[in-house]
């Protein structure tokens, strides 16, 4: 959707100046044993025996100890049990779908008026939903209706897909244009279906341009459109936009965070609550690519992922239900103290807000939240004394009110602390990538018994290209979802080593992975037109790491590519072919770098030479 046919591209957000989730190197609690001993030492009187410890303190010492207890709770909120798995990005079962417009109906000789989409094939390709452009406002006229909308909408539904419709916004003054566009959009969709049907998404506003409006007017225009669409359909609309637009153009406003967010950001890094703009705690859908092919649709296009299971998708897309809001308070919270730890458990809220609860946020002593998908949580690294907790349920609509409580940790001897155990560490990275693209290694650290995120876990990532010098190891720390990420570029295959640092509550784990690379290769002709009998040069370059390898010049003839010559890549990564053609005509060339044990096969762009 984003920008197909609109002339707008979806950029990523401006590069951050900070490592995601990074902690200062001086943060003392990275050594948990030291931290606990230090907390105990703050007491005025600590009497230790071989198997027991008594704790007394005067008022001032209690204050200091209490402060340390809070810090300890924060530092070790989610450290705990943890197995290590390595999978490529998107390898797990995910719910994906497409969005289309008239630009996905390219004309061909068989279909000069536009090729129809085969929605049965789209469904068979594994897509679960389809969102079709219904309307928009063009520069030439007030309203525009996609000529393919009605057929696409009906046929996608008939194929068994969850369906939706979007309006491409053209903000303008006066603000009443928002109401006009919303009415036109809703009436266009209602001619072919109802927003109150099963397997039907709420109305979608595609917001990518300003229309020349300033920030305040743009926010007001957007709100008026959403209000009108909700009033006409009885359902809370979805807002689609891209990262930079929300952060910069909309000023990172949180005004729309109560609406389902369809987040456009083309990356292999799954967005987390720490990286989403605009005050949203979760994305409802994530458009992660605009160049993915889907059987049944001509060419490459947009693909998005739904944030949940197939059951959650059907619940969210059930138009018979008007409910869409944060869940109510978790029920029956229980805290069971242990040695320097506490086991929390609870039951699901009475009211899920209209969409399934998909995770919970837990905080100890008002510290940073950590996330768990289950109804249990283990807090560790707790100093003796009183502690508080809060537990909030979360769904795609937001975070509900918390259940709160308290518990007390009895005095203990550090020698009685449980032995470190092994955390669950998942490593996500692309199996293959282009040398021009950024590779993202994403590490998720969780506790197996509760599946809770382990926050602030120290992770060292080593990237080792098969040729050239190794990279400097990068140290990152996991966020509230237990996720940390490292980015790198490489022109050759690279090995990836991930290691978690051992702590008092979990042991160190290491795992290896790799990514295969298609190097960058360039090819250009010295002239686009020559006289027959004269020559031109086909020159290009690739990485200097590939010096000494062969590149092959191919010509397209007789319906196939034919290899004509090869050259050796120079020490500077360059090569050059002399091209002489004795007859007039048109020649198409390309350069091929074959696959080796260090990289994948890559082909240059084609170059056309006219001979007169």
Summarize the structure.
By secondary structure, this protein is α+β, with helices and mostly antiparallel strands. It has eight helices and 37 strands.
What is the strand and helix layout of this fold?
Elements (H helix, E strand, L loop, with lengths): L31 H10 L3 E4 L4 E4 L2 H17 L8 E5 L6 E6 L18 H6 L4 E8 L7 E2 L3 H10 L3 E7 L7 H15 L13 E3 L8 H19 L4 E5 H7 L11 E4 L20 E9 L6 E7 L3 H7 L14 E7 L3 E7 L11 E6 L5 E3 L3 E5 L4 E11 L2 E2 L3 E7 L14 E6 L2 E3 L4 E8 L11 E8 L8 E4 L5 E6 L5 E7 L8 E10 L3 E4 L3 E2 L4 E7 L8 E8 L2 E9 L5 E7 L4 E9 L8 E2 L3 E5 L1
Parallel strand pairs: 3-21, 4-5, 5-7, 7-8, 8-9, 9-10, 10-11, 22-28, 30-37
Antiparallel strand pairs: 1-2, 4-12, 5-6, 11-12, 13-14, 14-17, 15-16, 15-18, 18-19, 18-20, 21-23, 23-26, 24-25, 24-27, 27-28, 29-31, 31-34, 32-33, 32-35, 35-36, 35-37
Helix pairs in contact: 1-2, 5-6
Explain what the structure shows.
By secondary structure, the protein is of the alpha+beta class. It folds into 4 domains: 34-75 and 325-416, Immunoglobulin-like; 84-88 and 420-518, Immunoglobulin-like, CATH 2.60.40.1930; 116-316, TIM Barrel (Alpha-Beta Barrel), CATH 3.20.20.80; 522-611, Sandwich (Immunoglobulin-like). 15% of the residues lie in helices and 35% in strands. The strands form 8 sheets. An 8-stranded mixed beta barrel has the order 4-5-7-8-9-10-11-12, surrounded by 4 helices. Strands 30, 32, 33, 35, 36 and 37 form a 6-stranded mixed sheet that branches. A hairpin with a 7-residue loop joins β5 (129-136) and β6 (144-145). α1 runs antiparallel to α2 (59-75) and α5 runs parallel beside α6. The longest helix has 19 residues, at 215-233. It is flat, with a radius of gyration of 29 Å. The model is unreliable at 3-91 (pLDDT under 50).
């Amino acid at each position: 959707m984003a920008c197909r046919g609109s002339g707008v591209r979806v950029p990523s957000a401006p590069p951050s100046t900070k490592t995601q989730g990074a902690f200062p190197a001086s943060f003392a609690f990275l050594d948990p044993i030291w931290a606990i001993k230090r907390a105990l030492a703050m007491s005025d009187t600590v009497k230790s025996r071989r198997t027991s410890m008594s704790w007394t303190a005067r008022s001032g010492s209690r204050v200091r100890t209490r402060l340390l207890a809070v810090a300890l709770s924060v530092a070790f909120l989610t450290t705990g049990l943890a197995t290590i798995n390595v999978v490529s990005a998107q390898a797990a079962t995910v719910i994906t779908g497409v969005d289309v417009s008239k630009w996905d109906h390219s004309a061909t000789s068989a279909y000069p008026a536009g090729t129809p989409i085969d929605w049965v094939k789209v469904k068979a390709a594994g897509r679960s939903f389809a969102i079709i452009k219904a309307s928009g406002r063009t520069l030439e006229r007030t309203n525009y209706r996609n000529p393919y909308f009605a057929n696409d909408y009906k046929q996608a539904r008939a194929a068994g897909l969850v369906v939706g419709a979007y309006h491409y916004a053209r903000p303008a003054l006066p603000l009443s244009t928002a109401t006009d566009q919303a009415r036109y959009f809703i009436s266009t969709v209602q001619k072919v279906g109802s927003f109150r049907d099963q397997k039907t998404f709420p109305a979608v506003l595609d917001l990518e341009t300003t229309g020349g409006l300033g920030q305040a007017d743009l926010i007001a225009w957007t709100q008026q459109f959403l209000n009108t669409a909700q009033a006409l359909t009885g359902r809370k609309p979805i807002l689609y936009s891209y990262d930079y637009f929300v952060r910069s153009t909309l000023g990172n406003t949180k005004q729309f965070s109560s609406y389902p967010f369809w987040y456009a950001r083309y990356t292999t890094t799954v967005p987390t609550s720490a990286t989403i703009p605009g005050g949203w705690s979760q994305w409802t859908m994530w458009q992660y690519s605009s160049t993915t092919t889907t059987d049944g649709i001509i060419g490459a296009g947009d693909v998005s992922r739904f944030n949940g299971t197939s059951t959650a998708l059907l619940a969210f897309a059930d138009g018979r239900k008007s409910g869409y809001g944060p869940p109510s308070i978790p029920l029956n919270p229980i805290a069971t103290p242990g040695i320097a730890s506490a086991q929390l458990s609870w039951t699901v809220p009475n009211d899920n807000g209209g969409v399934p609860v998909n995770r919970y946020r837990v905080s100890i002593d008002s510290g940073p939240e950590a996330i768990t998908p289950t109804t249990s949580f283990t807090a560790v690294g707790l100093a003796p004394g009183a502690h508080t907790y809060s537990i909030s349920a979360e769904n795609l609509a937001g975070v509900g009110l918390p259940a709160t409580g308290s518990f007390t940790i009895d005095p203990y001897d550090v020698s009685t602390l449980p032995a470190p155990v092994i955390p669950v560490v998942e490593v996500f990275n692309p199996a293959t990538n282009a040398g021009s693209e950024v590779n993202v290694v994403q590490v998720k650290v969780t506790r197996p018994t509760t599946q809770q995120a382990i926050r602030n876990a120290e992770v060292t990532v080593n990237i080792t290209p098969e040729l050239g010098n190794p990279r400097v190891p990068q140290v990152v720390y996991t966020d509230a979802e237990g996720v940390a990420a490292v980015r790198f570029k490489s022109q050759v295959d690279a090995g990836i080593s991930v290691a978690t640092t051992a702590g008092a509550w979990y042991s160190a784990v290491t795992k290896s992975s790799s990514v295969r690379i298609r190097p960058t290769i360039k090819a250009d002709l010295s002239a686009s037109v020559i006289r027959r009998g004269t020559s031109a040069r086909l020159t290009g370059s690739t990485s200097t790491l590939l010096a000494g390898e062969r590149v092959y010049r191919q010509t397209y003839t007789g319906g196939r590519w034919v290899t004509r010559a090869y050259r050796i890549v120079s020490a500077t990564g360059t090569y050059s072919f002399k091209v002489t053609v004795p007859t007039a005509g048109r020649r198409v060339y390309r350069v091929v770098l074959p696959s080796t044990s260090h990289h994948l096969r890559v082909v240059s762009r084609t170059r056309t030479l006219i001979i007169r």
